[in-house]
Write a sequence for this structure.
């Protein structure tokens, strides 16, 4: 069964850093595009970052220059390094995966809370 599980969230102060991790089980990890999304209180789901099998990355403007997405295909893991955190980054963060030819993300983690205090 395909499973994604996030870890590494928590409560931090503005300006601090966190690294989120996502462990993937159930398929050939290197065949999938991996992404991070987030849902802030009262807001719609927002795409944050994406990384392809060949480690190409893209970021939302709101996190560009502060967040870094990476992956370790040998370990079937994807990471989101979050630096210079802002109050506006407070959200539930989700790890997602899809095959490159799929239009929408197929698999999702359970989400993990990140709270940034002012």
């Amino acid at each position: 069964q395909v499973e994604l599980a996030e870890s590494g969230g928590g409560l931090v102060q503005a300006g601090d850093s966190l690294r989120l991790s996502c462990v993937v089980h159930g398929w050939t990890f290197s065949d999938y595009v991996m992404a991070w999304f987030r849902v802030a209180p009262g807001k719609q789901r927002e795409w944050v970052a994406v990384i392809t099998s060949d480690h190409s990355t893209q970021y939302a403007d709101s996190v560009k220059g502060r967040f870094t997405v990476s992956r370790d295909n040998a370990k079937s893991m994807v990471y989101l390094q979050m630096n210079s955190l802002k109050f506006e980054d407070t959200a539930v963060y989700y790890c997602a995966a899809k095959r490159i030819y799929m239009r929408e993300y197929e698999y999702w983690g359970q989400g993990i809370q990140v709270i940034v205090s002012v």
Observations:
- The radius of gyration is 13 Å.
